[in-house]
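Reading a protein record of the kind used here takes only a little practice. Think of the row as the fold of the chain written in a discrete alphabet. A record is reproduced here so that you can trace the correspondence yourselves:
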Amino acid sequence: MGLLELLRGDTAGPTVTQYECRNCGTTLSPNAEECSTCGSNEIAEYTL
């Protein structure tokens, strides 16, 4: 996939979901209830 297709939204590929601590940015597992680094329970979910 090229950059132009990505910017246009012409993507048919699979999506990936990433979970990240909103406080410190640590990448977390999908089933994490709190950050293992800082203890925050504020977890962001990004679908890429």
Remarks:
- Residues 19 and 30 are 6 Å apart (CA to CA).
- DSSP finds one helix and three strands in the chain.
